[in-house]
Amino acid sequence: MPEQPHILATLKEYFGYDSFRPLQQEIIDSIFAGNDNLVIMPTGGGKSICYQLPALLLPGITLVISPLIALMKDQVDGLQANGIKAAFVNSSQTENEQHSIYQNLIDKQIKLLYVAPESLSFLDTILSQIEVSLIAVDEAHCISAWGHDFRPAYTQLGYLKNKFPNTPLIALTATADKATRQDICDQLNISNATQHLASFDRKNLSLEVRPGNKRIEQILNFLDNKPNDSGIIYCLSRKATETLAEKLRNQGYNAEAYHAGVVHEKRAKVQEDFINDSIQIVCATIAFGMGIDKSNVRWVIHYNLPKNIEGYYQEIGRAGRDGLPSSTLLFHSYADVVQLQKFADMSGNKEVQLAKLDRMKQYAESLSCRRKILLSYFGELIEKDCGNCDVCLDPPTFIDGTIIAQKALSTVTRIKEQEPIGTVIDVLRGAQNAAVYDKGYQQLRTYGIGNDISWRDWQQYIIQLINQGYLEIAFHLNNKLRLTERSKKVLFNNEKVSLSHLKEFEKIKATHVEQ
Ligand code: ADP
Ligand code: ZN
């Protein structure tokens, strides 16, 4: 094992750092001790050094498996700029390029070799001819169907430990719940791996969730006291990023859209301008941010509900990497849930996706400390409430919601459980529209009995009723709202219902007119 001063000198010489971040040292020691390792560390925690530094001190090469073909070249360029002999092999290269890399490998001119999992099988022969001292599997959650980003090519990686039984393997990921963790170790054949779990608690990030109504106004209000701070707004659709960026530009903000449909040069430019602070706001689909290293992102907004907590956590994690206080804001809307439910339905592993979406919803609808929920998802328990989320800062108060519940439930009964939330609210509020008239709902006894409550508030109350099990949404029957066993207790047994008092979110200024 290399001496400690030698390790620190290498850290300084090649990476320019004076000390290690939490866990880096113990992970590196464990590699030198010959162990297999599983590293769970949030994005920005400093995972790369954990294998890049040992790579410099070990006799043979370090093989790095990475799914991010688009980023490989940048990563390798960065290493080479620091004087590290690194190369990559992936499908974007010509045969000639690949052969010259093979020659360099045999000539021991390479310390770190980045490989896409798809390209690994082509390297089988060459790998038998060289000394492999360490294998790193980056983004290791891709191996698991339980992870949020499953890549079939990753499932072949079990081969590595069979081919190199005595070479330490290190698997790294930013996101893995317990099931995924176990799955990673099983599939990579590293059941005795030492596990290193970094804390996922990013105390400097405030957490806030609001109902997704009048989002543009809410965003403009949010920005009023952050006129120059850099931020990212994540949207579900490309179209939304475009319209949102344009609306922000119309209000004088320097905002650009970023998504997979934007031409490559333009995307690179947006990314660069954002890093250099010449663009203030990027409205992006999830494609944005992977691998970008900008420490002063002061806020992240989710315009739409993310499809799972892993993705959400990773995206808010792009704020406040410098450790300074930063804000995050998530808009929660029922329409998004329906949309995501449809995506999940169409996906290959429907059950997993739906379960993950459910956890995301629970987070968004929580009436207790959000950080507790977020961290418990990653297997981390905190004793005290965080004091830096909207629930902690402004705890919900409860009202007697029995009458509200009775009105809603009896309306659902009278329309024979045949309508989605929107129409139920229309009937409650006595709306005069086609959805109501076409079916003669204006004749019902409950028509208009809820016109003292605004449409938006009804929506929130009904969502609460769903969460408490008084109603359910039949997702496979056009989202019709239906009664449950529990509804009957309210309708027939006088069960009391407690609902959380709805807050006035942001006073929307008259100048911020919805466009
Ligand atoms: P991850 O892969 O976990 O997302 P990276 O390896 O990309 O994180 O590191 C995130 C940032 O932290 C990079 O800018 C990196 O240079 C920096 N970093 C890593 N280790 C240290 C350290 N020991 N001291 C200072 N900065 C570090
Ligand atoms: Zn809290």
TrEMBL record:
Per UniProt, what is the name of the gene that codes for the protein in this document? Answer: recQ
Protein's name according to its UniProt entry: DNA helicase RecQ
Does the entry feature the keyword Transit peptide, yes or no? no
Extract the GO molecular function terms from the UniProt entry: 3'-5' DNA helicase activity; ATP binding; DNA binding; four-way junction helicase activity; hydrolase activity; metal ion binding
Domain (Helicase C-terminal) spans: 215-368
Q: Which cofactor does it need?
A: Zn(2+); Mg(2+)
Give the keywords, sorted: ATP-binding, DNA damage, DNA recombination, DNA repair, DNA-binding, Helicase, Hydrolase, Isomerase, Metal-binding, Nucleotide-binding, Zinc
* Enzyme Commission number(s): 5.6.2.4
- What general EC class does the enzyme of this chain belong to? isomerase
Q: Where is the Helicase ATP-binding domain?
A: 28-194
The record's Gene Ontology cellular component field reads:
bacterial nucleoid; cytoplasm; replisome
* Catalytic activity field: Couples ATP hydrolysis with the unwinding of duplex DNA by translocating in the 3'-5' direction
Classification of source organism: Bacteria, Pseudomonadati, Bacteroidota, Flavobacteriia, Flavobacteriales
Q: Which GO terms describe its biological process?
A: DNA recombination; DNA repair; DNA replication; SOS response
Q: Which family does it belong to?
A: Belongs to the helicase family. RecQ subfamily.
Kindly indicate whether the keyword Cell membrane belongs to this entry: no
